[in-house]
Amino acid sequence: MSPVEPVSNVFDTILVLDFGSQYSHLITRRLREYNVYAEMLPCTQKISELGWKPSGVILSGGPYSVYAEDAPHVDTAVFDLNVPILGICYGMQELAWLNGKQVGRGDKREYGPATLNVVDASSPLFKGVDHSVVWMSHGDKLHGLPAGYKVIATSQNSPYCGIVHESKPIWGIQFHPEVTHSTQGKTLLKNFAVDICQAKQNWTMENFIDTEIKRIRELVGPTAEVIGAVSGGVDSTVAAKLMTEAIGDRFHAILVDNGVLRLNEAEIVKKTLGEGLKINLTVVDAADEFLDKLKGVTDPERKRKIIGNTFIEVFEKEAAKIQPKDGEEIEFLLQGTLYPDVIESISFKGPSQTIKTHHNVGGLLEDMKLKLIEPLRELFKDEVRDLGELLGISHELVWRHPFPGPGIAIRVLGEVTREQVAIARKADHIYIEEIRKAGLYNKISQAFACLLPVKSVGVMGDQRTYEQVIALRAIETTDFMTADWFPFEHAFLKNVAARIVNEVDGVARVTYDITSKPPATVEWE
Ligand SMILES: Nc1ncnc2c1ncn2[C@@H]1O[C@H](COP(=O)(O)OP(=O)(O)OP(=O)(O)O)[C@@H](O)[C@H]1O
Ligand SMILES: O=c1[nH]c(=O)c2[nH+]cn([C@@H]3O[C@H](COP(=O)(O)O)[C@@H](O)[C@H]3O)c2[nH]1
Ligand SMILES: NC(=O)CC[C@H](N)C(=O)O
Ligand SMILES: [Mg+2]
């Protein structure tokens, strides 16, 4: 079998070397918005181990000081690639450090907007970029020009705000073009990638489908079979559809009904994925198994672990039942890993604290000896959605709010019983129905109802009631790392509250959650 080409070999690629800035991934995003493929790797990447040749390299910003003893440094083989290089903030300081060491602490930190003063308007980096606002975030600065460089831009606080090598295509800028506060930053990045690096602007999801299907077929070969867990969520559906396009019925999708899915979810997924998208789908009803194991459990982390482990058990059992036609064993496992997951795991800064255990079905199946296929591992969520639409997945499914694997079990606070799940499910259904009716579904990133384990007194039809409380959550976010609560009109909330109390037995009161993330999280558990 011929070696399978990585995406970075098929598309002209800008390599972003990450020195740990909180904005690094935005560089990649911005370039892709211009249909230029960009990939981020840690700054410690050995160039000889890259396996492909980038069209250009960007050195990102970072929290370190280049002159510090433990500061990270780029593999200097990057300069032997003879491709254009752009250093951003720490990246520029790194260029200067390697070339005369004239970097040190500035007299003041510069954090926030500054006005760019373009000295050399003929510089291709500044085509269409004039005296605009740029975003600064640094405490160190260049104390002099590195040997062989000249100044092409200044700012009030940075005499070396933009520099370029006299004879080589190596550029440095002190500000961050990737953040939106730099009003013409996107243009600058495009100038670098398209004009200076000559990268083709052919990174489109149409092209990606073709190359990816080819890649999957080569990887899997003519007979091997693939299994994958699907949830009816966006990521696993898009991955499953792509797999089906590539190898048809040799892909086996498994949906586990864990008893804590949304109302009618298993039937809906069966219809849309199985019948509609022609994905070879098995639905496993494991509700009893999950709910039995959750009996008496109230601790959120224990719930998550029980569900994660049971997922694996059920999935393994089902996978063992699938008998490939050639009598061989299943060889591959499909996973819906996205680029943000990859980016998180390439960080060289060490693990951060566990806030909650996000379950991930495939990630724990190591002893199954299956080889992983992750067709979405180069894509951001919005790219996955574009891809989904192109693959003929309905707009409604593609734009569905995310739904966590542990499902309603982490939205029923306290013990998870069939009755409690039924109440939460019904309230959630009404809430989402009203959100859709009000035309707000696509304005909200995620919305759901939680059932609280407290009772409260009410009065209905002159009778005293003593029932539970539903908390509604709706958030706006781009990355789910931070989130704001959604500002509903009072009339909307009033209507939803009335419907839930009237229609859902067991609920006497409704509240709306007005906490952002942080300090709260999106889910309540
Ligand atoms: N009920 C389920 N049955 C089978 N697999 C599941 C189930 N729930 C989750 N998974 C698996 O866990 C993975 C992670 O879930 P996650 O919610 O992050 O992604 P998704 O459901 O595909 O998309 P979305 O983020 O839109 O909900 C899924 O891609 C799927 O492979
Ligand atoms: O697949 C998943 N498995 C999980 O265990 C899980 N926990 C939270 N989430 C989703 O992640 C996003 C951020 O949620 P939190 O602020 O609660 O961590 C939100 O979109 C949550 O719905 C999960 N998704
Ligand atoms: N944003 C950055 O890249 C900062 C670089 C360096 N740590 C400084 O303070 O100047
Ligand atoms: Mg999901």
From TrEMBL:
**Superkingdom of the source?**
Eukaryota
* Principal subcellular localization: cytoplasm
SUPFAM superfamilies named among the record's database cross-references: Adenine nucleotide alpha hydrolases-like, Class I glutamine amidotransferase-like, GMP synthetase C-terminal dimerisation domain
Quickly give the catalysed reaction.
Answer: XMP + L-glutamine + ATP + H2O = GMP + L-glutamate + AMP + diphosphate + 2 H(+)
User: Do you know which PROSITE patterns this protein is assigned to?
Assistant: GATASE_TYPE_1 (PS51273), GMPS_ATP_PPASE (PS51553)
Which keywords fit this entry according to its UniProt record?
ATP-binding, Glutamine amidotransferase, GMP biosynthesis, Ligase, Magnesium, Nucleotide-binding, Purine biosynthesis
According to the UniProt record, one GO cellular component term is: cytosol
Question: What's a single GO MF annotation on this record?
Answer: GMP synthase activity
Q: Does the keyword Metal-binding apply?
A: no
Any idea which positions bind ATP? 231-237
Give the enzyme's EC designation.
6.3.5.2
Pinpoint the GMPS ATP-PPase domain residues.
203-400
UniProt keyword Magnesium, yes or no: yes
* InterPro entries for the chain: Class_I_gatase-like, GATASE, GMP_synth_C, GMP_synth_GATase, GMP_synthase, GMPS_ATP_PPase_dom, Rossmann-like_a/b/a_fold
Instruction: Kindly list the cofactors needed.
Output: Mg(2+)
Q: Which CDD domains match?
A: GATase1_GMP_Synthase, GMP_synthase_C
Q: How is the subunit organization of this protein annotated in UniProt?
A: Homodimer.
Q: Which NCBIfam families match?
A: guaA_Cterm, guaA_Nterm, PRK00074.1
Q: What does this protein do?
A: Catalyzes the conversion of xanthine monophosphate (XMP) to GMP in the presence of glutamine and ATP through an adenyl-XMP intermediate.
The molecule here is called GMP synthase [glutamine-hydrolyzing]
